[in-house]
Structures are given as C-alpha cells and as structure tokens.
Amino acid sequence: DQHRPLHGKHVLITAGPTREPIDPVRYIANRSSGRQGFAIAAAAAEAGAQVTLVAGPVHLPTPAGVMRVDVETALEMEAAVHGALPADIAIMVAAVADWRADSRAEQKIKKQKGDALAPLELIENPDILAGLAQHEKRPGLLIGFAAETEKIEEHARAKLVKKACDWIVANDVSGDVMGGAENSVHIVTADGTEIWERLPKPEVARRLLRKIIEEI
Ligand code: C5P
C-alpha cells in the first residue's frame, strides 16, 4: 500500500567499520560510525521493508523493525551477507577494512627492548560488494557507497564499473562527514549523476529510499 511501499521486499544493508584483530588486544579499524547505514535501515523499515542490517562494531541502537546481525571482521561480514540472501535490494554502506593481519597472534605481542620491530603482514580482505555483484543470488538493485576526498564523481563512476553494482552513493569525506551528523553525496548511476546538497544523514537516507522506491 501507499504507506508501506516496500512491503514484501527484503532489504540487506551493511553498516559501520570492520575490526581486524592483530592479537587478543589490538586491531585495525577506521572512523566509520555506522550512522548513515543505520539511518538507511531505519528508513527502509519505515517504508515497510523486511530489513537485515549487518553491523560492524558501532555504538548505535537497533532501529525499530530491523533485524540486526552483529559482526566484527570483514570475513564475518561477508558470511553474514551471504547468509542473509536472497534480498531484493542490497545497500553496502559499511567501511570494510581493506586489509587484515595475515595471522592473528594467539598471545599479546610483546614489546622487546632493543629488538627490531616485527613487520605486520597484511593481506587483502574480500570485496563484499563486488562479490555480491557476481553472486548467483545477486540482488536486483545493488548499491554501493564510496568515501572520496577528491575527484568524487570520477572515482565513483570507476567504482560503479569495477564493482558491477547499479548505483554508487559517493560521499565527500574530506571534511567532517565520517562520524559526523551530515552527509554530502553524489548519486552515480548508468543514467547520470545527481548531486545532493549537504543534508542530515537521516534525510539522505529518506531521499535515497524515495529514489529506490521510484526505481523498483
Ligand atoms: O573500494 P571502496 O572501499 O571505496 O568501495 C566502497 C564500497 O564497497 C562500499 O559500498 C563498501 O561497503 C564496499 N566494500 C565492500 N567490501 C570491501 C570493500 C568495500 O563491500 N572489502
């Protein structure tokens, strides 16, 4: 009906950072707060969708009507995303760590006086968005995010092609967007680019949902 335009649709969303352990007490992560992804999950639930939100470690309450799966690492996030399929729409908002430590030390790595620092060997994490684009259960509408600090549209369009998704929501993170309350986005699709004014993250979420509803 009119008030629940996404009724019967499953929307899969990733949000937040991932946390890649080095040893029992240390990890690699990033400044993502999860706020934009959580706002999108809330807006999708308000539009009547069945929402699965795969969340990295964040300090945010679960939006009403959203089924949340908490994960820590990129590999766990990938498994949770695959486990949640099929989905009609997937919106990959998480800031997935590009790398993880090649091996996780069983015990806390000790500082040793006079010794050279042991190098930290990193390996690449899987690209969850690109993997979903090639998956046999690829969602009908697949949306990625891209945090950029320069040449926003050019970089976003290159990602759209490389990752074979349908839209890229590019945000300019050169200022205080990461972790902040507002977002400044470009929506890059095969049809062209929309530039939205700087808006509170919940408003970006509502507008994005409106655009999704028009599309499907
Ligand atoms: O290449 P970049 O990390 O900028 O791409 C960002 C987009 O790709 C986001 O939608 C992010 O959620 C997704 N991504 C992913 N898995 C990764 C890296 C990025 O799903 N390992």
From TrEMBL:
Keywords: Decarboxylase, Flavoprotein, FMN, Ligase, Lyase, Magnesium, Metal-binding, Multifunctional enzyme
Catalytic activity from the UniProt record: (R)-4'-phosphopantothenate + L-cysteine + CTP = N-[(R)-4-phosphopantothenoyl]-L-cysteine + CMP + diphosphate + H(+); N-[(R)-4-phosphopantothenoyl]-L-cysteine + H(+) = (R)-4'-phosphopantetheine + CO2
Protein name: Coenzyme A biosynthesis bifunctional protein CoaBC
Region (Phosphopantothenate--cysteine ligase): 11-216
Cofactor section: Mg(2+); FMN
DNA/pantothenate metabolism flavoprotein C-terminal domain residues: 6-214
Keyword RNA-binding listed: no
Gene that produces this protein: coaBC
Domain of life (superkingdom): Bacteria
Family statement drawn from the similarity comment of this UniProt entry: In the C-terminal section; belongs to the PPC synthetase family.
Pathway recorded for this protein: Cofactor biosynthesis; coenzyme A biosynthesis; CoA from (R)-pantothenate: step 3/5; Cofactor biosynthesis; coenzyme A biosynthesis; CoA from (R)-pantothenate: step 2/5
Lyase as UniProt keyword: yes
EC number: 4.1.1.36, 6.3.2.5
